[in-house]
Each structure stands twice: as structure tokens, then as C-alpha cells.
Amino acid sequence: MASRRRGAQLRRSGRALALALLGAGLALPESPAPQPRYRPDGQLVRPEGYREWMFVGANLNMGYREGAPPPKHDRFHNIYLPREAYRRFAATGQFPDKTMLVMEVVRGATHASINRRGTFQDQLVGIEVAVKDTARYPEGWAYFNFIGPEGKALAEAKAFPREACWDCHRQHGAIDNVFVQFYPVLRDLRPGP
Ligand code: HEC
Description:
Elements: H1 2-27, E1 44-45, E2 54-60, E3 75-81, H2 83-92, E4 100-109, E5 120-132, E6 141-145, E7 156-157, H3 166-172, H4 184-187
The site of heme C has 23 residues, from strand 3, strand 4, strand 5, strand 6 and helix 3.
């Protein structure tokens, strides 16, 4: 008798807990998908909060041009895209309109704290952004850099001319201008070139 009552009590408190969790879930506001924002003069506002997006790849010391000298310091590229764009890409193989990809460029360092070997990511030296916005850019994507000449982060940036960035991305990016071939998290969804 006592154990039956105890069982009912446990069931009741389990239900209460489930309801409380559901309530907490419902109370959390769904944050809207990140979208590119522009100034009236057409400059792109630096995307914020991208370190909470999907992290899809980290590349080290990549150089795109034959014969280019190796960099003086190691350089990592960290690539992020919004979770919503990631999900759409996973489902359809396409990057939805208004997709943003952020590439942080981080200088490597070797000797600090207890480290005696190997390289860690040290100083942020670049924030480059690719935006797909077909209403605004007839060629689909535009490219930006948010670190100014003296290494200062810029609040907004102008799109580069097509030949500075777009041409190479169009020609060599595996899918829709994006270098999916170098981002394992995306590549593994879409095995291909
Ligand atoms: C000669 C080829 C080439 C040119 C020119 C080029 N890129 Fe890229 N870009 C790459 C490659 C390769 C990657 C992927 C690997 C990496 O660097 O980590 C990449 C990756 C990127 C990414 C990450 C998202 C993506 O599309 O894959 C951004 C953002 C980016 N580049 C911005 C720029 C900007 C801004 C310019 C112009 C100032 C530019 N790129 C010019 C070759 C190029």
C-alpha cells in the first residue's frame, strides 16, 4: 500500500518536473536567424555574436598563390556560419539567401604559459565575411574585411570589387562560391569535389 502511494508520488513529481522543463523551454525566446545588416550607404555592419554560430573549419597557413612567401607568423582561419544556414545546407545542399560566413584570422604563438611545443591561437588579426544577398548583389555573394589597416576592428565595411575576392571564390569554391572542400563539418554532409 505504502509503496503504491510512493510510486504515485514519484510519478506525480516526474510529471511536475517534465512540465517545469517544458515551461522553461517555452519561456526561452527563439533568437531570430542572423541576417546581414547594412548602413544607408550600403556598407555591411560587422556581424556580431558569430562565435555562437556553427564552427565548421580551422585551417592553418593556407596560401592561395603559387610562389607566395610563407607567412612570418602562423595564421589560423576559423570559419563560422549561422546555425540556420547550416541546417538548410544540410537539408538541401544549398546556402540560403542571406547566408553569412565569417572567417576569423588568428595569429599563432608557441611559447606562453606551460606550452613548450605546438601552436595555439593567439591574436585576432582578421575578420573577413562573405554574404549571399541576391537582391543586393547581382553576382550573389559579396566579400568584406572588418580589420582596418592599423589592426583595428571596423564597425562597417565596403564590399570588395569582384576581381579581388569573388572571382577566385566562384572559380575554386566547391559549392556556390564557398570552399566547402576545406571545411570538414560541411564537407562531410556533402561528399563531393
Ligand atoms: C586566390 C583565391 C582567393 C581569393 C582572391 C580570395 N579568397 Fe577567400 N578564400 C579562399 C580559400 C581557398 C578559402 C578557404 C580556405 C581558407 O582560407 O581557410 C577562402 C575562404 C574565405 C572565407 C570563408 C568562407 C568561404 O567562402 O569559404 C571568407 C569569408 C573569405 N575567403 C573572404 C575573402 C575576401 C574578403 C577576399 C578578398 C579580399 C578573398 N576571400 C579573396 C581563396 C580566395
